């Protein structure tokens, strides 16, 4: 399973558009791994998690054919995770000779409402037919080609059912994508009990800061999850723990990467590929 991190930042990105803090100024100066667009993950070129505002440009930058994506799983409806207007260019004369004629999209009720409203507003014939939206619910497992994808509850976005996703393929590989959330719920730990995770991708909005946030995590919280999963036998020494969804003002790439490495975790960057 090939994981491509198309974006690894929090909602404001790094550097923040209007921010002049030392971290953002340094990111503008150094570029490279210091720059972070809004978080999204591509699995094997055909399954995408989240479709934020940089999706188009990142697909061009990294040589990704978006028409090859067949499955789209949205974590929640916030604008840094869902730019539904992009779907108005899928099909008709905007998107010709697409590799996959239909995109199967999944998300909560608010996600479904935003996507369906956008598709209904499209005038060009063929746009609505190029996307099929399905509403999903907590602990529901969906079959998406070679993948089994389970929507698990995130602690985030009051007023809607935000999700993290467990992705399992037919080769026996298993990845937990847990961004924009606080710690895992007890029901999630219970659901994962008896499974083995090859990779755990965790929200690290707070970086190495020693602060508490109900709806986000940092390295301190990531360590709690790592230890809990290891103690339950869900993860082991071969499991990769990857940290993403990094906010500005939490330190630069080199500093956070060293902090993560000391805990047996890896800090990801925009454009990073990981083979699981």
TrEMBL record:
Q: Pfam families in the record, alphabetically?
A: Lactamase_B_2
Q: Does the keyword Lipoprotein apply?
A: no
Q: What is its EC number?
A: 3.1.4.55
State the Gene Ontology terms under molecular function.
phosphoribosyl 1,2-cyclic phosphate phosphodiesterase activity
What species is this protein from? Acetatifactor muris
Keywords, A to Z? Hydrolase
Top-level taxonomy? Bacteria, Bacillati, Bacillota, Clostridia, Lachnospirales
The record ties this protein, via Gene3D superfamilies, to: Ribonuclease Z/Hydroxyacylglutathione hydrolase-like
| Protein name, as recorded | Phosphoribosyl 1,2-cyclic phosphodiesterase
InterPro entries named in the record:
Metallo-B-lactamas, RibonucZ/Hydroxyglut_hydro
SUPFAM superfamilies attached to this UniProt entry: Metallo-hydrolase/oxidoreductase
Class of this enzyme: hydrolase
Give the gene symbol: phnP
Q: Which residues form the Metallo-beta-lactamase domain?
A: 63-221
């Amino acid at each position: 399973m090939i994981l491509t991190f198309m974006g690894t930042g929090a909602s404001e990105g790094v550097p923040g558009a209007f921010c002049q803090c030392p971290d953002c100024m340094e990111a503008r100066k150094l570029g490279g791994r210091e720059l972070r667009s809004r978080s999204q993950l591509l699995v094997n070129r055909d399954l995408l998690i989240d479709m934020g505002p940089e999706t188009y440009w990142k697909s061009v930058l990294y040589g990704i054919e978006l028409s090859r994506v067949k499955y789209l799983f949205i974590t929640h409806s916030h604008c840094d995770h869902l730019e539904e207007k992009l779907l108005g260019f899928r099909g008709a004369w905007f998107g010709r000779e697409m590799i996959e004629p239909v995109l199967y999209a999944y998300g909560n009720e608010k996600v479904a409402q935003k996507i369906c409203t956008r598709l209904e507003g499209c005038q060009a014939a063929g746009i609505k037919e190029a996307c099929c939206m399905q509403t999903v619910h907590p602990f529901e497992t969906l079959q998406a080609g070679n993948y089994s994808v389970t929507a698990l509850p995130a602690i985030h976005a009051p007023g809607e059912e935000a999700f993290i996703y467990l992705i399992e393929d037919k080769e026996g590989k298993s990845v937990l994508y847990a961004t924009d959330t606080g710690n895992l719920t007890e029901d999630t730990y219970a659901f994962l009990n008896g499974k083995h995770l090859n990779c755990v991708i965790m929200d690290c909005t707070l970086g190495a800061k020693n602060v508490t946030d109900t709806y986000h995590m940092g390295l301190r919280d990531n360590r709690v999850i790592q230890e809990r999963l290891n103690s339950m036998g869900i993860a082991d020494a071969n499991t990769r723990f990857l940290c993403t969804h990094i906010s500005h003002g939490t330190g630069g790439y080199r500093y956070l990467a060293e902090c993560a490495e000391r805990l047996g975790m890896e800090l990801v960057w925009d454009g990073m590929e990981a083979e699981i």
